[in-house]
Hints:
- The protein starts with a helix and ends with a helix.
- The chain is α/β, with parallel strands linked by helices.
- The protein contains 23 helices and 16 strands.
Amino acid sequence: MGEAATTARRVSVVVPAFNEAVLLPHCLDSLRAQDYAGPIEILVVDNASTDATAEVARTHGATVVHEPVRGYSRALRSGFAAASGDIIACTDADSVVPPNWISRLVREYASDDRIVAVGGEIQFEHPNWKSVVLTRVLIPFVNKVDRGSRAGPHMWGANMSVRRDAFEAVGGWNPRFSLQADSELSERLRTVGRVTVVESLRVRTSSRRWNQSLVSGVYLYVANWLWFHTFGTPLYMEFPAVRDRAVRAPGRRHHLRLAAGLCAAVMLVGAVGYGAFEPQSSEFGRTYWTYPTDRKVVALTFDDGPNEPYTSEVLAILRREHVHATFFLIGNNVRRSPGSVAAIAHDGHAICNHSDTHPLCFALAPESRLQAEIDSAERSIHDAGGGYPGIFRPPQGLRSPWLMNVLERDSLAAITWDDAPRDWDPIPAPQLVKRTLAAAHPGAIILLHDGMNLTFHADQSETVKALPAIIDGLRARGYSFCTVPELIGVPATLVAWTHTASTSPALTARGGSTRAAERTP
């Protein structure tokens, strides 16, 4: 994996450019200053520019590719088609790459033959007072979440590269996408190999879009991302070219229409966001996060197991305290520790479905994937001795209209919570106890964790330490314990429903037991 492996590859760099005569020289100077010892080809795609973009590119030693039809996707496709390298990288005309950019990308490919695409991070330069929170706080937070996704990260178009053979194997750029073209390509590349992001490899880029068009830019990006991950197709094709705004001089009426449209969009996104992200919402369908009762009773729930040794330690405490709880199990973890499921069932606890792989933003996936996740977890739980769960808790508590449709079709009750001490963070046991007791009330559903996503042997020792004090503290306040099925009055398993379909009010209210009947052994 030495220098020979690093320098053997020819690298093409594609720079889409529309009216970028002012900023393009800085980008090309940074590309010409690379420390990479191998051959580099620099291609500037002149995308129907009306300024001196093409002339600037030639004087700075780049090859000019002409694409007469405006559009980021058109420029990308033309540039990649003209590229001759076996690694093709991409950056934006308003971006400046570090001197080790290409050598670092190539070194990453040399480290692992399974890697098919390598990207880096984006550092937005000179944000104004309007966009500083977005560029310095929100976007880095989104990046952190994305990099932690088990499915793999998404690359930025201004800092990405791909192996030519993998790019061609997945069909290249999708002509239907301009906005989110980089995200859409990243997801297809994952099917043929590893996509990786080197977080320390940063490209500096302009904040001009967010400085000039913060609200409309954020709306376009977020709305398009949600639409793409929900329906698999883009909602919008392009961002407006912000460098054109000075010559448009729109009138007052145009501004009023834009403001009214943005207000309506923000209200719509806010309403949808509340229904999806707020655990205590039935916006998209009946969700239980508590149960109205005057009795001082609560339901302890444990998510993301089984996860040993912590699941067994939780069971030992519950057994000693004579408390029954509810375990929301992940199918992948069940297959790893099937004996734990049998132990949970043997002790009389309720076993419920928490998806098969606990994916990030689970509820936004297409119905077919949601159904597959639920069904696979259900089969694994049943095979391990946990029956066919009649209750489902969505990962992260996120719900969508199509997820609720799947649950209704499967006669599954949706459960979230209203007492969460946040034991997914590294919080000491005394604080977990204090938070849990402070939020307790009659009918509360308490969210704790014996596992953490798909992490093997995830350390939940603080939750285990806190559990006896939580039970003692609740009992001292006069509370008793029950399972979630007992609290909300629904059967714990779908098999049981096949015997009570004619008499169960809860079953009748949720539309029958067709799926339950199909699952009966």
